[in-house]
Amino acid sequence: MDPLEPAPESLSTAPPDLLRYAHEPVMVTEVLEALLPERGGPYWDLTLGAGGHLRRFLDVAPAGTVAVGVDGDPDALVRASHHLRVAGRNVSGDGEVRLIHDDIGALGTSTDVAALLSLGLRPRAVLGDFGLSSPQIEDPSRGFSYRHAGPLDMRMDPTRGEAASTFLEHIGQKALERLIGELGEERYAGRIARTIKESLPILTTEALCATVEKAVGGHRDGKHHPARRTFQALRIAVNDELGRIERALRFAIDVAAPGARIATITFHSGEDRVAKDVFKGAVRDGRASHVVLASRPQKAGKPIDCSDDEADLNPRARSAKLRVIEILDPDLAVTGPKGYRRGPRPPRD
Ligand SMILES: C[S@@+](CC[C@H](N)C(=O)[O-])C[C@H]1O[C@@H](n2cnc3c(N)ncnc32)[C@H](O)[C@@H]1O
């Protein structure tokens, strides 16, 4: 996919519609403690969003630190570019902030990424803050939310792939039931999948809400809309989010410089399981160690939860979990807790 061209002047003023909703970056204090911005970059933000974490990283990093921001959503890149420019950052193809429009599940084959690596910009700090940003959720035309009437789209990158309405046409009932049950943790997955398949086509968010309500009758789990879990499951499936997270993290581990820190923020148990398994594998293979934060000491390999204070201020942060690893130097002998390789690693193929 094309990189975002070295941002022209016009990008510094994004269309007002794209700036209507702000995104509050989550667990910023913990992320900065984990990623050590004071030692510089390159910093790679795999989920640029509105650029909140990236801006905070550069605010602490020494002058001259280079940051790379990746996002699959063209709107996110325009939004982040605007905010970064307003903050006085140089966003351009050879500036301190370089933006890439790409799917994070395909970074290993991206020519833009290869070009950055060939310039010696191997990451020393990586963040993947997975899921949706607030402006995506609030934009009715994206179809992510049961709260807003709009087309049932749900693609992170609306320029490619299959919208949720088409996805529902193509998936079989059993597979749909499984994904609503697993990705949505929805106990009424069977009834919902059957009613969806009987009600096709479902072209709008309101139509999906009505279909789920029809399937589960008056069922509500108290404070949440009955379609909330179905929307979540469908969004994760339409965007192959778990597969892309896994590929993105494996890629980051492969290209990161020795001593690099890699952090993930996840909002869903499925996403967290993927991050946990990939990080655990890297530790087991002697390629990384778990990082324990001094301010929020946790058992190695356990995630750090969003603090209650932050969740009170920003309810969307409530389910956030942070995991951090550090890439080991393959040429150095490694000693450490159970599971670490002792002695130098054999050279990689
Ligand atoms: C929670 S937001 C990140 C917010 C950001 N940390 C900030 O402070 O503004 C997640 C972002 O990741 C992007 N994203 C999610 N899955 C992606 C994928 N497979 N490829 C590329 N970008 C993806 C979304 O488009 C969204 O902009």
Compact summary:
This protein is α/β, with parallel strands linked by helices and 349 residues long. The chain folds into two domains: 9-135 and 241-327, 3-Layer(aba) Sandwich (Rossmann fold), CATH 3.40.50.150; 157-238, DNA polymerase, domain 1 (Orthogonal Bundle), CATH 1.10.150.
Give your account of this protein's structure.
This protein is α/β, with parallel strands linked by helices. The protein has 2 domains: 9-135 and 241-327, Rossmann fold; 157-238, Putative methyltransferase TM0872, insert domain (DNA polymerase, domain 1, Orthogonal Bundle), CATH 1.10.150. It is built from 13 helices and 8 strands. It has helices spanning 28-35, 52-60, 74-86, 111-118, 134-138, 164-170, 173-184, 189-199, 205-216, 228-238, 241-255, 269-284, 308-313, and strands at residues 43-45, 67-71, 97-101, 125-129, 261-266, 288-290, 304-305, 321-327. The longest helix is centred in the C-terminal third of the chain and has 16 residues, at 269-284. The protein is globular. The structure holds S-adenosylmethionine.
